[in-house]
Amino acid sequence: MDMQIELKDVSANYQIGPIRKPNVLNSVNLTIESGTFTALIGRTGAGKSSLLKTLNGLLLPSEGSIRVGNTVIKSSNQKDAIRKIRKQVGMVFQFPESQLFAETVEKDICFGPLNFGVPLEEAKEKAKKVIDLVGLEPSILSKSPFSLSGGQKRRVAIAGILAMEPSVLVLDEPGAGLDPQGKKEIMSLISTWHQQEGLTTILVTHDMEDVALYADRVILMDQGKILKYEKTKKIFSDTDLLESWGLEIPQARHYQRRIEQETGIKLPNVCLTLEELADALVAVGLV
Amino acid sequence: MNKLILGRYFPGESWLHQLDARAKMISVVLLIAMLFIANNWLAYLFLWLITLFIMHLSQVPFHTYVRGVKPMIWLILFTVMLQVLFTSGSNVYVEWGPITISEYGLINGVFIFSRFVMIVFLSTVLTLTTKPIDLTDGINKLLTPLRLVKVPVDDISIMLSISLRFIPNLLDETQKVMDAQRARGTEFGEGSLFQQMKTLVPIFLPLFASSLNRAEDMANMMDVKGYNSGIKRSTFRRVYWKKQDTWCLCGVFFIGVVTVLLRG
Question: CA of B7: which chain A residue's CA is closest?
Answer without folding.
Answer: A17
